Amino acid sequence: MSRSFSLPRLSCLALPVVVMLAPAGARADEPTAAAPATTGVAAPAASAPAALAPAASADAAPQTTVVELAADDHRATIERRVGTTTPSGFPLLETGVLQVGQWEHQCVAPCALRLDNRYAYRVAGDGLVPSDSFSLPRSGDRVRVDAKMGSSTGRVAGVVSTGLGAGAMALGALALIATPILHSEDVGSEGFRTGVLAGGVSALSIGAIAVGVGLYLWFSNDSHVHTQTSASR
User: Which of 43, 71, 171, 173 would be 76's cystine partner, CB 3.0–4.6 Å?
Assistant: First the structure.
């Protein structure tokens, strides 16, 4: 009968041992469960370079300004210089005097648009004298461009009139210089020498008037541009 009571005692003693071993295994797994929390704290540091990317791209973006064009002629157009060309084949004689700009149409006055500050601009148009190139100020958000345009036809007429008038004045001066020489050498008749003198005076007078008119047409048909910076509205 002693053997029949010994087996139940052993089984009862084994149960507490199993129960005590189970919690110990659970505590050993707790440090591994806390590991994901550590990686979660380091995540913002990894994303910090990505947050700096928009600022870098913003600095690389070109600076632009809103430009308002106003002109006294409806044909006036603001143009952007996109390049220059020079005659090739004479590298040793390169001076930049013969450079020809290549211009791109932007808008016809009156107009307003946003333009890149890195380029040079001018105001031109069909039948109009182009203005000198200018750059946009970088101190304001808006720039007003007031253009006073000259006529290409008027300028050409002024150049031609000035040239013809200068030529007539030169011929008249030669006639006046030649008149006393003709008298001293007794060349031609008296009427001929008088005609040379009268013709010289007339040519000199007409030439002077032509030069005056030509210079007026030449310089009055120049194109001027005035820029004014203002704050954004």
Answer: 71
Other residues' Cβ atoms within 10 Å of the Cβ of residue 209: 13
Tokens of 28: 């050993």
**Higher-pLDDT residue of 228, 2:** 228
What's the confidence (pLDDT) of residue 132? 92
Whole-prediction pTM value?
Answer: 0.61
- Residue 145 burial (CB < 10 Å; 0-12/13-18/19+)? buried
**Alpha helix positions (H), the chain:** 2-28, 30-46, 48-60, 152-185, 190-220
* 203: amino acid identity, one letter: A
User: How many domains would you assign to the chain?
Assistant: 3
**Residues 79 and 136 both lie in one domain:** yes
**CATH number, domain containing residue 107:** 2.60.40
What does the mean pLDDT of the chain come to?
76
Return the SS3 of 96: coil
pLDDT tens by residue, 158-167: 999 999 999 9
Is the domain of 164 the same as that of 111? no
The 10 Å Cβ neighbour count of residue 131 is 23
